[in-house]
Amino acid sequence: MKIIRTINEMKQIVNEANNKTIGFVPTMGFLHEGHLSLVKEAKKENDFVVTSIFVNPLQFGPNEDFDEYPRDEEQDANHAKQAGVDVLFIPAMEEMYPKKMGIKIIVEEGTDVLCGRSRPGHFDGVGTVLTKLFHIVQPNNTYFGLKDAQQYAVVHHLIEQLNFPVKINGLPTVREQDGLAKSSRNVYLSDIERQEAIFLYESLQYAQKRVVDGIENPDIIIKEVTNMLQEKTSGKIDYVELLSYPALQQISTITEPIIIAIAVQFTQARLIDNILLQPNGTKIDRL
Ligand code: PAF
């Protein structure tokens, strides 16, 4: 595995790739099995795999955890190598943003809900950095985890509307044995919070059961999930939402594919999770 730190070297590798297909897994590092499952899929479908590690300041709000975001380059390099990454692209801040960006992508659709509402400007930052990374890496395929289902929907739009010649693949959320979605932020949960955190996925599974039972009114499901989270966790609920997917619109009856998504703020970690369902309650695992 090559570790590349400059855009020029990265572009050179891409140029030398000729007709080989490139699979790209963009990350902010602190790699866990969720990221590595994306690498494994990328390896199956491409001649070589590029993973980037860049904690992108543009997507963090002023009071968010940019400084505290976990970083461990050595461990990441080991994980990436073991998973079969061919090129690990780790640009420094000055490499990606040598001067203050005077241009940015503004994502107007699908960002007034879920994390977009609680994190104004977040998806503009994601769109801006991915625009740069797609230009630098020029992948044929890119891989995103559906744990960030809103991010998947936004990036899908970005690719479609700005005509990036890349196919986006959405892969299943990887979970701990007890159901907690893997996340770089899980390390910031206290022992008690870690035990409570299982109720994020339990509440989503309960919601799925209710849709299977035939409940069509989103308000009923939102209320039940909210009650469960309030009862079982000490975290502060940021949102519980049920929306159409991928359009992310409010709906009054469940007659199309939906997302049920939650975000809970614990003392030092804000956790998100979601479930994507067909209107009959069948789970959608990959896109
Ligand atoms: O999902 C992430 O880790 C980030 O939002 C991404 C896609 C790497 C862009 O910085």
Kindly describe this structure.
With 287 residues, the chain is α/β, with parallel strands linked by helices. The chain folds into 2 domains: 2-171, Rossmann fold (3-Layer(aba) Sandwich), CATH 3.40.50.620; 184-277, Pantoate--beta-alanine Ligase, Chain: A,domain 2 (2-Layer Sandwich). The protein is built from 10 helices and 9 strands. The chain has a 6-stranded parallel beta sheet, with helices on both faces. α6 (122-137) crosses α7 and α9 runs antiparallel to α10. The model has no long low-confidence stretch (mean pLDDT 95). Pantoate binds at residues 26-28, 56, 59, 126, 129-130, 148, 151.
Write a short abstract of this structure.
The chain has ten helices and nine strands. The chain has 287 residues and is an alpha/beta fold.
Q: Strands, helices and their partners?
A:
Layout (H helix, E strand, L loop, with lengths): L1 E3 L2 H10 L5 E6 L5 H13 L2 E6 L19 H11 L3 E3 L3 H4 L17 H5 L3 H16 L3 E5 L3 H13 L5 E5 L19 H6 L1 H15 L5 H15 L3 E9 L13 E8 L4 E8 L10
Parallel strand pairs: 1-4, 2-3, 2-5, 3-4, 5-6
Antiparallel strand pairs: 7-8, 8-9
Helix pairs in contact: 6-7, 9-10
Bound molecules: pantoate.
